[in-house]
Amino acid sequence: MQHSAHADPNTLAAYQRALDRVFERSRELMPAAPTWQASLYQSLRACYTEMHAHPDAMRLHFIATAEDSEVQSTRVRHRDRLLALLHDTRADAPPSLHAELLLSMIHARMRAQIAGRERPPDLDVAEHTFALLLFHYEGAGGAR
Amino acid sequence: MAGRRRKRDSPRELQLPSGRHGLTRNFVVSNQRERIMNALVATMTAYGYGGSSVERIAGRAGVSRRTFYEQFAGREDVYLQTYDAAAACLLERLGAAWEQPVEGSARLRVFLQTLLERIAQEPQLARVCIVDVLSVGAQALEHRERHMRDFAALLEQGALEHNGAPPPPFAVDGLAAAIFDVIYRRVAHGHAEELPDLLDDLHSFCLMLFQYAPVPEPR
User: Fold this and answer.
1) pLDDT band for position B16 (50/70/90)?
2) Nearest CA in chain A to B53
3) Residue pair A12/A4 in contact by the 8 Å Cβ criterion
4) Does the beta carbon of B181 lie under 8 angstroms from any beta carbon of chain A?
5) B217, A129: Cβ pair inside 8 Å?
6) Are B52 and B44 within 8 A, CB to CB?
7) Nearest CB to A109: which of B131, B138, B174?
8) The total number of structural domains that make up chain A
9) pTM (2 decimals)?
10) What confidence tens digit (pLDDT) does each residue in B158-207 have?
11) What are the start-end ranges of the H helices in chain B?
């Protein structure tokens, strides 16, 4: 039987618009941040703030992406443009695979936190997750 | 059929001669199952899961519908068995990689090299198992979750042996998911052959994660 759990076109379009707003915000924030870690942190914070305000987009971004190929493609395209923005605007950017893995790890961590609760974590909990990986990456010897 | 040319990679190449051949029943069944599973991969590569009817799969495998249903309950069953077999084979090789007689971080490197090279060697199977799994249904997603947990457990075991202490709790599950995210992207774009090129950066990233002690997370 064909899997039927696909997002409806309107919800998917609204999700794409939410991601576009995150990207526009990131274009302002990333070049102005003092370090590449701070630039990704601010972009992730803008993303989570946007998702928190739009629960359907939150569900697609963190939950449905593991079950729906269209949502997955939409999210991966957004991640790719964020990574390109990071490397286009930051001379101090880490190796591109490291940045890609960091974003994926943060996403996986947030997904686990959201899937295990009735309500998504507050922004301060999410911020801790972003910081946990991003700011310790350098301490562990990354991007030297 | 006379005059029809077979593709060289067709599962029909494995087809047994018809009539009396003196082969055991078990051998014949095993051969038919292998052909059907190979045919599923070839058919999904050409038509996706939605376009891979039992007729197409059976035709590609060179078996009748009756033989197909003697071996499998249906299309989803073939998919799940093919998926499980591919995952078990990969996990077995990854487990063996941790047993290699090399020291320290070289063992982690062998583990990651095995992962990247094995997936790159079979791009069609990789696409069917890593990308198309999202089109198959809830049961396939459950199987994927189980295999991901097995992969994360292998990674954790390796990290434990490498460090002599458990890795940071968030690191293993997050890293397992991130590694497969990275692989998904290359396979989905048809660039599975690029995976072995990621080895150096993936190795250095994993080493960093395994080696640092994070601050505790708030409740």
Assistant:
1) low
2) A1
3) no
4) yes
5) yes
6) yes
7) B174
8) 1
9) 0.84
10) 788 777 777 776 678 789 999 999 999 999 999 999 999 999 999 999 88
11) 25-47, 54-61, 65-71, 75-98, 105-121, 123-126, 138-163, 169-188, 199-211
Does the beta carbon of A75 lie under 8 angstroms from any beta carbon of chain B?
no
Contact A101 B182 (CB under 8 A): yes
Measured in Å, how far apart are chain A's first and last C-alpha atoms?
A: 51
CATH at residue A89: 1.10.357
- For A82, counting Cβ atoms within 10 Å of its Cβ (0-12 exposed, 13-18 middle, 19+ buried), the class is buried
Chain B residue closest in CA terms to A102:
B178
Chain B CB contacts of A2 below 8 Å: 49-50, 135, 137
ipTM above 0.90, yes or no: no
Q: Does domain B11-71 have CATH number 3.40.50.1470?
A: no
| Model confidence pLDDT, tens digit, residues A87-121 | 999 999 999 999 999 999 999 989 988 987 778 88
Domain chopping of chain B, boundaries:
11-71, 75-211
- A91 three-class SS: coil
Q: Could you tell me the CATH superfamily of domain B75-211? A: Tetracycline Repressor, domain 2 (1.10.357.10)
- Provide, as residue numbers in chain A, all residues whose Cβ is less than 8 Å from the Cβ of B189: none
Q: Domain of residue A116: give its range.
A: 9-139
Residue B76 at interface with chain A, using a CB cutoff of 8 Å: yes
